[in-house]
Amino acid sequence: MTTLHTALQMGDLKLANRLIMAPLTRTRAGRTHVPNALMAEYYSQRASAGLIFTECTMVAGDASAFIGEGGIFDDAMLAGWKLVTEAVHAKGGKIAMQIWHPGRAAHSGINGVQPISSSNKPIRNESTHTLRGKEPYEAPRPLSTEEIPGIVELFRKATERAKAAGFDGVQIHGAHGYLIDQFLRDGVNDRSDNYGGSLENRARLLLEIVDAASSVIGAGRVGVRISPIVPFNDMEDSNPKALVEYVAKQLDARKVGHFEVRHDQHDRPAEVELAKIARAHFKGALLLNGGFDKASGEAAVASGLADGIVYGKLFIANPDLVERFSESNPPLNKLDMKTLYAPGPEGYTDYPTLPA
Q: Among residues of the chain, what percentage have pLDDT more than 70?
């Protein structure tokens, strides 16, 4: 029987187990966005995961939404990330970079420029932390058709640098209301060019980025994350079932290494249905993410609904989650929410592991 501890062939990567560490923004890179030794320690502590995804990583200098997230848009950042990959590989782990542009979730109070999106629709009734304090989100500037190849090129260059930094692959962030998702879902995208209207057009940016990244590192080392019904960042779509089916078919045709469907709660009927649609149309490694514990994760991989389970908060508080899940009733550290985005090691690298 397949379990969370069964090895997994994920595209070109052979994973030791099916417990995947989610991309988790922790803002320890500071204002320079250059990864550092503290980040290398954090990731290497969790190297027993089958695969680690990095926090969402900026593909451009004006693509910050959290002030202290890591970047991959110059060579200083490449060198910083090399500290991370070398530390993880030294412990026998594998790590992929999640490459990302926030689109309208950015702010001029962080980047000094008006944010961009598929349309001019702002994130409604919410605010964000800027260098000036908390401010409402701004109306974004719609990208022109002529600008979109430049966005694709940012992701291609980010993949080049990720490869040079020693990453085992990349994940393209098409979820959570960030730039790619702002094209995918029709609650935001109201364009009338080749990147709007039909689902084929709305998915065009995502698939052009997938093809660009694959040309650099190989499709078997590329993956995609989407969140078709997660409302975060004021998002919705009129037909998420069709969206999942179309994206799954397109990614399957390209033979990408993995496809991650991010839920709010994996066991809600609508979310189970989307997972089944993804499973029916994507034959590669399907990853599910959304409130799984040990038992529900084991059930999902045993049934074949998922090939791997992506854990977030549990990996933050339990760097040895893989080892803990080897026990029948594992004790788990409690997550400290107050230190999620705080600077320094507290709540970052000081969570205890089980005695050897």
A: 100
Confidence class of residue 264 from pLDDT cuts 50, 70 and 90? confident
Reading the block at residue 97, the tokens are 């970079």
Query: Distance between CA 247 and CA 79 in Å, rounded?
Result: 34
Question: Of these residues, 178, 246, 311, 351, which one is catalytic?
Answer: 178
Supply angle C-alpha 105, 42, 313, rounded to 5: 60
Whether 18 contacts 50, CB under 8 Å:
yes
Looking at every residue in the chain, the average pLDDT score rounds to 97
Neighbouring C-alpha atoms within 13 Å toward the C-beta of 189: 29
Phi-psi region for residue 196, left (φ > 0), alpha (ψ -120 to 50) or beta?
Answer: beta
What end-to-end distance do the CA atoms of the chain give, in Å?
Answer: 28
Residue 15: enclosing H or E segment and its boundaries? Answer: strand 13-15
Confidence of residue 356 (pLDDT cuts 50, 70, 90): confident
Catalytic residue list contains 178:
yes
Residue 104 has a pLDDT of: 98
Buried b (16+ CB within 10 A) or exposed e, 137-174: bbebebbeeeebeebbebbbbbbbbbbebbbbbbbbbb
In 3-state terms the chain splits into helix, strand, coil percentages (rounded to 5) of: 35, 15, 45
pLDDT at residue 328, as a whole number: 86
Q: What is the pTM of this model?
A: 0.97
pLDDT value for 330: 86
How far is residue 248's CA from residue 207's CA, in Å, rounded to a whole number?
11
